[in-house]
Write a structure and sequence with these properties.
This protein is an alpha/beta fold and 240 residues long. It has helices at 15-26, 38-48, 60-66, 94-119, 136-139, 142-162, 189-197, 207-217; strands at residues 6-10, 30-35, 51-54, 74-79, 123-132, 168-174, 229-232.
């Protein structure tokens, strides 16, 4: 494969997604970012020199409608859209609990499944799929952890399905990463210190840490690495 690649990053307007998109843009790739908030995407796209396509990745109709604006060929797909939708929720009763679980499943699983399925006919041979997971899939975190565990299982499935075309699919599972919107202002100093203490590097992760790993997984040299969960957490959880 020669020339610039077509890279699609969902949830690319802020945090980890923005850092990933920036990594590819600096590498000279053609980048398209997606997300639900058009103003955020537009501002990010200017900074990145990227294209942007606003849509809700968990909505089948919205994904279908967005296809006309997405690249006709995709060499790298990074499914970053999601987050813990349980913050600020009070389960209250079983109906509210069920809705909370559905929300996290939609945000973190359906978003990746729908976008990937829609773009599969456009994936180039030798393309790379990188899905953002979480340490929560191993450590446990209610519906969010369960959703990220589902991402791991689904990634194994698509790695088998698409492998004969030289397409790889892997999960990057970060631990604590600062400078993102993930915690929505709920991370206390005490909780942050506890999470840092659990690492072996004694620091929080940064969006650029994730971007560097995603960049490697998208590289030609990672062509025989597929179906894996790569833990990126400073040793807070050992994936073995």
């Amino acid at each position: 494969m020669t020339g610039a690649r077509e890279v699609v990053v969902t949830g690319g307007g802020t945090g980890i997604g923005f850092a990933v998109a920036s990594w590819f843009a600096k590498a000279g790739e053609r980048v398209t970012i997606t997300g639900r908030r058009e103003q955020v995407l537009a501002e990010a796209a200017v900074l990145l020199g990227a294209r942007y396509v606003p849509f809700d990745a968990s909505d089948p109709a919205a994904v279908t409608a967005a296809l006309a604006e997405l690249p006709e060929r995709v060499d790298v797909l990074v499914n970053n859209a999601g987050g813990n939708t349980d913050f600020g929720r009070d389960p209250g009763d079983l109906a509210a609990l069920a809705e909370a679980w559905r929300a996290n499943f939609a945000a973190n699983v359906l978003s990746a499944v729908l976008v990937t399925t829609a773009l599969t006919p456009r994936l180039a041979d030798g393309a790379r799929i990188v899905n953002l997971g979480s340490i929560a899939a191993s450590k446990g975190a209610g519906s969010y952890g369960a959703a990220k565990a589902a991402i791991e299982s689904w990634t194994a499935d698509i790695s088998r399905e698409l492998g004969p075309r030289g397409i790889t699919a892997n999960v990057v599972a970060p631990g604590l990463v600062e400078d993102t919107e993930f915690f929505q202002g709920t991370l206390t100093d005490q909780r942050r210190q506890a999470l840092v203490t659990h690492t072996r590097t004694k620091r929080a992760g940064k969006p650029d840490d994730v971007a560097e790993l995603v960049g490697y997984l998208a590289s030609p040299g990672a062509g025989h690495l597929t179906g894996q969960v790569i833990h990126l957490n400073g040793g807070a959880h050992l994936g073995r």
